[in-house]
Every structure is written in C-alpha cells, then in structure tokens.
Amino acid sequence: MTASSTQIPQAVTEDLRAIIADAGITSDQDLIARILATGIGLGLDPTDRLDLKITSAALTEMRAAFRLFEPFRGIPKVTIFGSARTKPDDPHYAAAAQAARALAERGWMVVTGAGPGIMQAAAEGAGAEHSLGVSIRLPFEEKPNAVIAKNSRNVAMKYFFTRKLMLVKESAAFICVPGGFGTLDEMFELLTLQQTGKAEPTPIVLLDRPGGTFWAGLQRFVDEQLIPGGVVSPDDFDRVLVTDSVDAAVSEITGFYRNYDSLRWVGGRLVLRLKHAPTDAEVAALNDRFADLLADGVIEHRGALTPEIEDDDRVDLPRLVMRLDQFRVGQLHRIIRALNELESAQGEAPA
Q1: Among the listed residues 90, 76, 91, 80, the one whose alpha carbon sits nearest the alpha carbon of residue 115
Q2: What is the helix (H) or strand (E) element at residue 193, kind and residue range?
C-alpha cells in the first residue's frame, strides 16, 4: 500500500473525536482532529524515524512559541534582524537600539533572535518589558541575552525553519540591520513572501549606520543585475525602505498603519480594513489609479461582509472591497500606501 492510499480506519477517526471531547476541547475540533489524524497517518505510512523526530520536534516547538506570543497578541510587534557578531561599540548596534527604543515608546514590542550583537542591541533598546525572543540552539551559540532572560520571554528552537516562521508570523513590521548569511537569508525570505503574496504586506526597513553603504550595495545589485536579468520586476524593491536614518525607519513603520489596519480574503474578494472612512471622490480616484490590479469590477467602499460579521472580525471599521488580480497580489503594497496618503487619513487615527 502506498503512502498516498493509506486510510485511517473509521473507528480510529471516531476514537479521535471522542478523545478530543474528553480532553475538554470545545473550539476548532475539526483542526485538532486533522492534526491528530496526520500523526496517525505518519504512523501508518512507512515514515522514517528521523522524519518522525523532525515532525514531533517541530510541532512541540511551534506550540511553545504560540504560547509565548499568546499574551501579547493584541500588541503590534516588529522583528529586528542583524548579526550576532556586531559589537556594542559598532554604529549598527546603536542604530538598532535607537530604533527599538523609539518603537517601544510608541507601544510596539520588539522580537529578536534573543542572541548577542544586534539582537541584544534591539532588546536593550526596547527594554525587557517590550522584548520577546526566539532563540536557536547551536553548539557554539551563547545563551539568550540578559535582557530577554530577565522576564523569561524566550522560546528556544532546534530548527531554523520553525524559528524563522515565528520571527516572521507574529510581526507587523521588520527592520534588517547589516549582517551575514543569516541576516541576508531572513531578509530575502521576507521579500519572497511579500513578492508572492504568501504573507500580508508589511513595512520592511533595511537600516544602515549613518553614512553606511551596506544596503545601498544591495540596491545597486537589484538595479544592475536582477531587474535587467528579468528575474524580478522593476518595482519589486519599491516595498523596501533603504535608509541610514532611525527616524525614517520608525516613520516608515508607524506610517504604514496610519490608515491601513488589516486585510482578509472572503472568497475571491479582498477586504481592506481602514481606520478612516474614505470619501466617494477618493474611492473614485483609487479606481482610476489601480484599475489594472483588479480582476474585474471596481473598488467598493462598504461595511463588513457576512463572514466577517459572523466572526466578529473588525466589523466596526470602514473597508474597501475589491476583486484583486491574484497574479498582481505582490503589488498590494501600492494600494496600501495610497490609502495611507488619502486626505481623509491625515487626522488622528482611532484607538
């Protein structure tokens, strides 16, 4: 019997449902059942023991990370990436600490890899009360830095892929400070997720030291090699801010949410929730400007859709609804930036 044809006996499926009920689980029973059924399926398949160990460890780590972040789910978070080798007297260290401090003062929490270097700088800038860590267990890696360890707000991961998932999944903004292979890997994954629409649009800042040229070199490489080679689109890098100014980095992040709140897909319709209701003239102008991004129809200003009402999902906010061309989803950041620039959005945002 092949792995694809392995079926879980109906009696086992019913037993799983009974176990879920006996455990006192009352919500999302279908998803819990699916997780358990997948585990049973792995046992029925000719799964290698190493594969089972990877699956078990990954699920355990994800559960620990979810529990770490749960108490802070309503607080906006920024993940700061950078080298563990950066010394405290390096200007990059100071830039990371200053950016973290400024965002913490504005109510943001700062997420890092919990190690030394830029990670420690960001945690020091934000302070223990505004810091969360997702560390990696390596033979040569230091323990979580003292700031993260102070409140035990850290989860240690065995695998880079689970660590990267949590560093990206929980945050609404990202700052990348010059670093090595690891920093570049994290930065390129961010860009890939945005380009392909696999992650919601978020502000991404490549922050250098004052007068630094590290990220400017990357910008030249994109302009001189990637775009002429046709492997990225000419405007793919437009979603990124390259700067050596902490003030500009902080403004980019906070400004991204001046009017834009969140999004949701309802069937084939994209719903953009806003903090300020647009005028009819502004909606008409948006339709003229972004008609090429729509699969059909127009951008509509309307109330919450039925599934949103059923889920009590940000129902009080004004929203725009459209049928976005799925092949143009990587351009969604253009619409969001336009929404933040609307005249109706220039007043104080609702709490």
Answers
A1: 80
A2: helix 181-196
Q: What is the distance between the alpha carbons of residues 182 and 141, in angstroms, rounded to a whole number?
A: 14
| Residue 153: C-alpha distances to residues 53, 295, 340 (Å) | 26, 44, 33
CA-closest candidate to residue 103, choices 154, 187, 171: 171
Give the integer Cα–Cα distance in Å for 8 and 41: 7
Does the structure show a pLDDT above 50 at 283? Answer: yes
Query: Left, alpha or beta for 309 (phi > 0: left; psi -120 to 50: alpha)?
Result: alpha
Contact at 8 Å (CB) between 102 and 80? no
DSSP string, 293-336: GEEEEEEEEE---HHHHHTT-STTS-EEEEEE-GGGGGGHHHHH
Q: Which carries the bigger pLDDT value, residue 327 or residue 271?
A: 271
143, HSE (Cβ side, Cα atoms, 13 Å): 6
Residue 9's pLDDT is: 87
Q: How confident is the model at residue 329 (pLDDT cuts 50, 70, 90)?
A: confident
Selection from 99, 149, 120, 140 nearest residue 249 by Cα: 99
Alpha-carbon Rg of the chain, whole angstroms? 22
Predicted pLDDT at 326: 87
Q: Computed from CA positions of residues 332, 178, 211, 225, in that sequence, does the dihedral angle turn out positive or negative?
A: negative
Q: Of 292, 318, 300, 336, which Cα lies nearest the Cα of 201?
A: 336
User: Cβ contacts of residue 84 below 8 Å, gap of 6+?
Assistant: 113, 115, 116, 117, 118, 119, 141, 142, 182
- Cβ proximity of 242 and 219 under 8 Å: yes
Six-digit token string for 68: 């770490």
In whole angstroms, give the CA distance from residue 314 to residue 319. 10
* DSSP at 116: S
DSSP letter string, 219-277? HHHIIIIITTTTSS-TTGGGGEEEES-HHHHHHHHHHHTSSEEEEEEETTEEEEEESSP
Chain mean position to CA 218: 22
- Read off the pLDDT band of 1 (50, 70, 90): very low
192, β-bridge pairs: none
Q: Which pLDDT value is given to residue 197?
A: 86
